[in-house]
Design goal:
6 strands; alpha/beta
């Protein structure tokens, strides 16, 4: 019988991490990262939340109001502590479909996120026996955890998140590091780990092309 995700109660902060949160996360070798936006068009649908969780289960949701991310202020100075963390070269950032998150974090906060591990990319490289690579499907197979996606389509720009929104927003990042470990073992077994890391290296460029409006650039 599938279980639910870990019961992590995140800290909610406005606009940026606190200095104490930054220092605590800087001690982590890996960090799970996710975002919530108003939709799937990166330039139209602004960044609303950034969710973080480390291996110790320390969860944080950073709420980003409109005046912060749609602003004449240079993106690089909008959330300096969060930017510092996400660009720290000693910390591996783990995401699912990193291409989207990397693009919105770069556009709205000036973050050049690296190094990274994309669990969706890894899943598509090794779970070739299925076409189901969404996080819900991967978590169910690899961890026997069932994610509730009912709250996915909701107003993430609301200044007051509901308890259901908070649970949904933090649930994904609580699972990404365990999923990475399972996928890494499968990649190692089949000799595809180096290929996966080569694919991860391309993701920031693909995100940049998305922001520039290029589509199917490498198609004939």
């Amino acid at each position: 019988m599938p279980q639910g995700p870990p019961d992590v109660v995140p800290e909610l902060v406005q606009r940026d991490l606190t200095e104490a949160q930054l220092q605590a996360y800087l001690a982590s070798p890996q960090l799970s990262v996710d975002t919530e936006t108003l939709g799937l068009q990166q330039l139209r649908d602004r960044l609303c939340l950034v969710q973080l969780c480390d291996r110790a289960g320390r969860g944080t949701i950073v709420q980003l109001p409109r005046d912060q991310v749609v602003s004449s202020t240079p993106p690089e100075s909008r959330a300096p502590r969060l930017k510092r963390l996400l660009e720290e070269p000693r910390i591996l950032k783990v995401l699912h479909f990193a291409r989207f998150d990397v693009a919105v974090l770069r556009h709205y906060l000036g973050v050049r996120l690296w190094p990274l591990y994309c669990t969706r990319t890894a899943s598509k490289l090794i779970r070739t026996y299925t076409e189901r690579h969404g996080l819900k499907d991967v978590a169910l197979e690899l961890l026997d955890v069932e994610l509730d996606k009912v709250t996915r389509h909701t107003d993430w720009s609301s200044p007051r998140l509901t308890p259901e929104q908070v649970r949904y927003a933090i649930s994904d990042v609580t699972l990404l590091i365990p999923i990475m470990e399972r996928l890494d073992g499968m990649l190692e077994r089949e000799g595809r780990k180096d290929l996966a890391h080569d694919c991860f290296a391309v993701i920031p460029l693909m995100a940049q092309l998305d922001l520039m409006g290029y589509d199917l650039l490498f198609e004939h």
